[in-house]
Amino acid sequence: MEIKFSHVNSKDFTDISFVIPKGEITGIYGEDGDKLLKLISLKANEDMKGIIYFDKKRKLRSNYYLFKNDIVLVEALFNNLFNVDNVYEYFVLYIRDKKIEVKDNLEKIKGALKIVGLDDDILDRRISTLSFSELKLFQFALAFLSNPKVILLDEPFRGLDLSKEKKLVRIINRLQEKFLKTIVIYSNNPNYLYKYTNYLIVLYKNKVLALGNTSDVFFDNKELTLYKIKKPDIVEFILLVEEKKKVKLPRRKSVMDLIKDIYWNVK
User: Fold this and answer.
1) What span, in angstroms and rounded, lies between the C-alpha atoms of 144 and 180?
2) 93: which residues sit within 8 A by CB, 6+ positions away?
3) What is the pLDDT of residues 28-44, one digit of tens each?
4) Could you read off the pLDDT of 137-152 as tens digits, one per residue?
5) Beta bridge mates, 199
6) Contact (CB, 8 A) for 141 and 148
7) Are 155 and 64 part of one and the same domain?
8) 65 and 193: one domain?
9) For a surface tag, which of 26, 111, 177, 239 has the fewest beta carbons within 10 Å of its beta carbon?
10) What is the pTM of this model?
11) Strands 207-213 and 57-58
């Protein structure tokens, strides 16, 4: 699903316009990116003015129901909406609350667990016993129940060690490549966005400062430098080498690939 905002205003943003490409992994970087996710998810649309399209269908007050299950927001921290502690019971209540049509609750839930790599025995556990990474995957599984076209992720990698981060990235890439989901990731860490997204929206003072190919935005957009917006570590290093040593290194996303480039340049 492609999302287009045209001259949208809200209590948090002023005259913002951007397009989120269909079937891509888009990053959001900068101030109030989490609030923009909520705006896109239509969770904060009561004060919103402007033109919004979802797959070229204009969003109106009267047709909100057409999109509400197509867009799911996975928040940075789990919020227990139903005040229950059993995992299976929470799944069932979530299905009922979202009015998700399913033939068999257990079959649908097991399918969502399989996507995120969680075993079925988690259904007998208490939510309060889940580790941080298990809780994150539980949130993902909940999001997949409605088979959304757009998945919005608020700081998905925060608090995860490297192995759990890689597992989550594999899930995200599979959703985008195999199931053609549109993925939007907000993070205040530019290193994650540089590595894992291919399109980027940069916010500054309630407006869109830059947007485009992630690598091009971080390397070429002069306004990021002008406003002293932090760039990914690997980008800053490549630019520093070019400035100080007059050596133009390839725009790598992997540190190991960059080390190989440096080795061959030194030789």
Assistant:
1) 13
2) 81, 82, 84
3) 999 899 999 999 988 75
4) 999 999 989 889 999 9
5) 26, 213
6) no
7) yes
8) yes
9) 177
10) 0.90
11) unpaired
